[in-house]
Design goal:
Rossmann fold; Helicase, Ruva Protein, domain 3; 2 domains; 7-stranded mixed sheet; 9 helices; 9 strands; 18% strand
């Protein structure tokens, strides 16, 4: 099989620029041993990853046409192709439960969901290098005070350091997307456990940003806080003005019934 038809419903935009593909594959840590590529498509990243004999590479691909192409063109990969939906696959079972890095030219329609699943498995995934829609990449890397700062910014930055690597123009894809893209690197920081209940933390962050135009006093009206544990002005701010540490403090100030 020598051709794969890009499928709109899968959000497929195949990268055709070999230099960009090479640059992405070189962005993973030199110490990487186990590597999972999400959505390899026609293998533009895969072929460079396979050149590194020290990598234990697995790929996961939902598109059966792409799987057939990969098996034909990369026979050495056949036993390491997982024909499944990443979002519904028990990824904690991969690599005999060892840690592994994630890489990919991610489908834009599920890229945020991919990162939420990475967060759920953060003790096993120390690094992600991936292509995202530029707007999403900027949101992930955004700092407090910017309009692009949101739920994914806070939750990821609580556990990972984010590095915006480079911007990618739309004309290097087939078919070209209507937006620019960007490659980012996400690496685990030194925080093994944030200083609060992480499930409550996730809930506070999501609730605050779901009504981001409101002050926290109004956006978080479903919660009750111990005001003595908070800076006097924090509830008068909006979600985008708070750092990760501020959200941790908010979570710890919750009065639980």
């Amino acid at each position: 099989m020598n051709y794969v038809r890009p499928k709109k419903h899968l959000g497929q935009h195949f990268l055709k620029d070999e230099n960009i593909a090479k640059e992405i594959t070189l962005s993973i840590a030199e110490t990487t041993k186990n590597l999972l590529e999400i959505g390899p498509g026609t293998g533009v990243l895969t072929k460079y990853l396979l050149k590194n004999e020290l990598l234990n590479l697995n790929v996961i691909e939902i598109d059966t046409e792409s799987v057939a192409y990969l098996k034909t063109n990369f026979p050495q990969l056949e036993d390491r192709i997982i024909c499944e939906d990443f979002l519904h696959f028990p990824i904690e079972t991969l690599f005999n439960h060892e840690s592994y890095t994630v890489i990919g030219n991610f489908p834009y329609n599920i890229s945020s969901q991919i990162l939420f699943k990475v967060l759920e498995n953060r003790t096993q995934i120390p690094e992600v290098v991936g292509m995202f829609q530029k707007e999403v990449a900027e949101r992930i890397a955004s700092k407090p005070g910017k309009k692009t700062y949101g739920i994914l910014s806070v939750l990821l930055q609580a556990y990972y350091d984010i590095e915006y690597l480079f911007t990618v123009e739309s004309n290097v894809f087939v078919p070209p997307p209507k937006v620019k893209s960007a490659v980012i690197r996400v690496r685990r920081n030194d925080v093994a456990q944030i200083n609060c209940d992480d499930k409550l933390f996730f809930r506070v962050v999501k609730t605050a940003f779901n009504q981001r135009r409101k002050t926290l006093r109004n956006a978080l009206g479903v919660f009750t806080f111990d005001a003595d544990k908070l800076p006097a002005d924090i509830l008068a701010k909006r979600a985008e003005q708070l750092s990760v540490e501020d959200f941790v403090n908010l979570t710890n100030a919750l009065i639980l019934n």
